[in-house]
Amino acid sequence: MQHVLQEILLYLIAAVITVPISQRLGFGSVLGYLAAGVVIGPVLGFVGSEAEDLRHYAEFGVVLMLFLIGLELEPETLWAMRQRLLGLGGMQVVATLSAIAILAQMAGLDRNEALAIGMILCLSSTAIVMQTLNEKRLNRTEGGRASFSVLLFQDIAALPFLAIMPLLALSAGSGVAEPHDAHGTTGVVEVHGWMRAGLVAGAIIFVVLSGRYLSGPFFRFLKMARLHEINIAATLMFILAIAVVMDYLGLSPALGTFLAGVVLANSEYRHQIESDIAPFKGLLLGLFFITVGASMNLNLLLSEPLRMIALTVALMALKFAILQALAIVFRIEGRDRVLFTLSLAQAGEFGFFLASFASQSGLLSRDLADEVLLIVSLSMFLTPALFMLHDNLIRRITEGPRKPDDEIDEQGVVIIAGMGRFGQIVNRMLMGLGHKTIVLDSHPETIERMRRFGIKGFYGEVHRPALLEAAGLANARAIVLALDDPDMTVQITRYVKLNHPDVEVIARARDRHHVYALYAAGADESVRALFDSGVRAGKYALTSLGYSNDEVERVAQAFFDYDRKMLAELAELWDPKVPLDRNTAYIDKAREQHARIEAVLRGQLNDGALTLAEGVKAKDLLNSRVVAREPDEEDDEPFVAPPLAVEQAAEKR
């Protein structure tokens, strides 16, 4: 027992240390788990052959992952994927298997060995790819869905591969008895022909009917216990039962649980099931990746490093080329093609089972199987690097060559720079009253999308003075800066006020610090993006406490007005060169304002007519309450003002 606890502690320590470092460096969690396994296995020798045995238990994490994927797919969605599932997935498996087998024969292997290696290496890693796609939130993109279709077909294809390999071994004259694979996919029920087919069909029908008609009463019965741990135990029992049935019939437990997940996708208990088993999935998948790293044969790699790395890179390049061709055939374009081709270029976890199975069947020699297993491990180890390459390529595609600015042939009374949600609201209000606006945005796709809705806009780099002048800045009444970039907003404000002081600047502010910088740059109005929604939420909270509508409106208006007054006072004391917690004058004013605003708000409830000036006098009647913090949750990321804003702030003071 002590040995088991020590081993568990070792795996946990390795994961806790390496995974956060890997995440921090941008490599993702999968590479962190793999690196942890390499360190405690081949490098330090803390774990040995038991890592391979442990992997068979950790593989249950893949089973849980496919079950959760199934929960996200309704049967109608799966049916809609049938063309890509069979066409794209089928062509990828056949093309990759054939290409690898031909090259293996050219390298001197016999036909059966070449076919076995083709079966092993044509598959990709469902665990790594789906885990990474989920982490990067790419699973719902077109490229992510195409990748999932191929992975699902590959998992299905692993079943006939397991049936074909013993036949290849017999035809090669090995005479080795059929082994029992550690993964358990050879099955326990020894029947043949139509009886086996009938049992398989019956098992699938049982899974579908159980999920559709028995899951509801089953989970309602569990509610009687009112114990969360019983729900978790029942969910795991349900998944394990399906996995065991599929295993007995020689089918993939992962695919069986995936089918069960699809059946339960429309269930009212879907979200409860998902939340119950998600932690187990994450831990077991992490353990699986650690065991993959721990079982790498570093001695073989160190003895022939160039050859093994070259074979791994050649495999990934071959799969990349085939995936690229399929992406063209199936019209997967742009960033989705990049994701599709890079994410599936590695070998997969089923390769471990198939390689071990082929070795035990006598189809592959032990040395050849070890080489294949090392190639599988190395390709999985390199997969996070492919996703990093994907991120860099997408960044370059997104930036791309700059499109020429649109020619602006109109002018309006208000210019709106930025057509996000903030700018759209302002534009709708002005257009609704018949006022002419000129909309500018730096993202061509945003302009195209708005034009489809009948809203005309112009593309251009909105910080460029030439574009602003072409939009009629000299004759405009106001300009609304609805930009996400705080620095750019200050820069444009400064330009407008220096060259067209009569044009009113209404700027979206990120936080209080940004307000101060805009104030220094000369903005007429600064609107904090979250302030109005916060005031509105406060009004709802006061209503829930029993205040009348009249009281709520008076308090909210007083708070709104007084907050603006406080900002103006603090802006005079703000110095971007001095941290707020060291600006004594700023801190003293903020403390004073806390007591004053309390008096103002209470005064609104007392007589309903207390003015701001009276509220200031009422402050003297209150006990002085010191609040030593700046009351804005948005101040966690200080805003650094551009140099000219600092100079103008100094001039105003």
Beta-strand percent range: under 5%
Largest sheet: 6 strands, parallel
What overall geometry do the principal axes of the alpha carbons give? elongated
Average predicted local confidence, pLDDT: 77
Q: DSSP helix count?
A: 28
Terminal residue distance:
72 Å
Gyration radius from CA atoms, angstroms: 32 Å
Tell me the strand order in the biggest sheet: 3-2-1-4-5-6
The level of helicity is: 55-70%
Tell me what you see in this structure.
The chain is built from 28 helices and 6 strands. The protein has 653 residues and is mostly helical. A 6-stranded parallel sheet has the order 3-2-1-4-5-6, sandwiched between helices. The radius of gyration is 32 Å and the shape is elongated.
Topology, element by element:
Layout: H1 2-24, H2 29-43, H3 50-58, H4 60-71, H5 75-80, H6 82-106, H7 111-121, H8 126-135, H9 142-171, H10 193-222, H11 228-248, H12 253-263, H13 270-294, H14 298-303, H15 305-329, H16 334-343, H17 350-360, H18 366-399, E1 414-417, H19 421-432, E2 437-441, H20 444-452, E3 458-459, H21 465-470, E4 478-481, H22 486-499, E5 504-509, H23 512-521, E6 525-528, H24 531-544, H25 549-573, H26 584-606, H27 612-618, H28 643-652
Parallel strand pairs: 1-2, 1-4, 2-3, 4-5, 5-6
Helix pairs in contact: 1-2, 2-13, 2-18, 3-13, 4-12, 4-13, 6-7, 6-9, 6-15, 7-9, 7-17, 8-9, 9-16, 9-17, 10-11, 10-12, 11-12, 15-16, 15-18, 16-18, 17-18, 22-23, 23-25, 23-28, 24-25, 25-26, 26-27
